Amino acid sequence: MTILIIIVVASILLGFFINSLLSNVPKLKILFQIVFPIVIVVLAYYLYDGINTPIQFKKQMDYRYEKVKQNLIDIRTAEVAYKQVNGKYADNFDALIDFIKHDSIPMVRAINSIPDSLLEAGMTEQEAIKKGIIIRDTVKIAVVDTLFSKDFVADSLRYIPFSNHEEFDLGAKKITTGSNVKVQVFEARADYRKWLIGLNHQLIVNIVDEKEVNKKFPGLKVGSLEEANNNAGNWE
Question: What is this structure's pTM?
Answer without folding.
Answer: 0.71
